[in-house]
Amino acid sequence: MQSRSAALNTRVHPARPVVLLHAFPLHAGMWQPQMQALAERGFSAVAVDLPGFGSSPLRDEQDLDGFAARVLEVLDGLQVERAAFVGLSMGGYVLFRLWQQAPHRIGALVLADTRAEPDSPEARERRYAQASQVAVLGVEAILEGFVAGALGRATLDGRPGVVETVRRIVREARPAGVVNALRAMAVRPDSTPLLPRITVPTLVVAGEQDGLTPPDVAHRMAAAVPGAKLSVIPEAGHLSNLEAPGTFNRQLLDFLETSGFWRA
C-alpha cells in the first residue's frame, strides 16, 4: 500500500506527522486543500489511500480492521511511530479501529463527519443493495445518489467546481474496492464504547448541512470523548474539507497547534 501523497517530508519538522484518511468512495486526493495548508505550516502530511482506492491495491476482501492494519503498514514504512490522525466519514470509522488496535500510535484525533454507532439494519441493507448495484453496473450506479446525499445545499447550488471534483474522484474508484468498502462498513462494530476511553486531544468536526452524519451526531460524540472540542462548519455538508476548505483548514491547524501533542 502506498500513500497518495509524496513521501513523508523528513526535511521539515519530521516529528509533526499528520495522517489523513479519506471518505468513501473517494481517495487520498480529496485532501489536496489540506495537504497544501499543512505543508505551509510545517507539518508533514501523509494522505493514505485505503485498500481498494486510489493507488492502494485490494489484495483480498478486507474489513475495517484490515484497513487499519494497512494504515499501520504505511506508517511503519515511513518510520512514523506516532502521529496526529484526521479521518472523514469512512476514514473516521478506520480511526476507531486504529484506536482499538494501536492507541499508542495516535497522538491526536480529528473525527470529521463521521459517527461511532454501527449501521442500523436499514442502513446495512442499503449498503448491501448498493454493493450489488456496483458489482453489476459499476460506480456510476451510485454516483449521483452519493453526490446529492453527501454535499450540502450550499455546495450543490453554488459550488459547481466542488461538485465536479467530487464526481471526478468518485469515478476514479474501482468497483471491487467500492463493493468491499460497502460490505466492510455494513458490518463495522459499535465504537461508542471506545469514546470515553479516548485519552488524546480530539476535535470533532461536522458540516452544518451534513445529512449523513448531522451535527447532532457530532455533538453526542464530542460530549462522550473526554475534553473533546467541537467545530460545526457553516454551509458545508458531509465532505466539509472540500466544501469549506478555508474554515476546515483554520479549525484543523488551530487544533493541531494547540493540542500539545507536538510537545509530548
UniProtKB/TrEMBL annotation:
Domain AB hydrolase-1: 17-245
Keywords assigned by UniProt, alphabetized: Hydrolase
The UniProt record lists the keyword Hydrolase: yes
Domain of life of the native organism: Bacteria
Alphabetized GO MF terms: hydrolase activity
Segments forming a coiled coil: none
The name this protein goes by in its record: Alpha/beta fold hydrolase
Annotated source species: Carboxydichorda subterranea
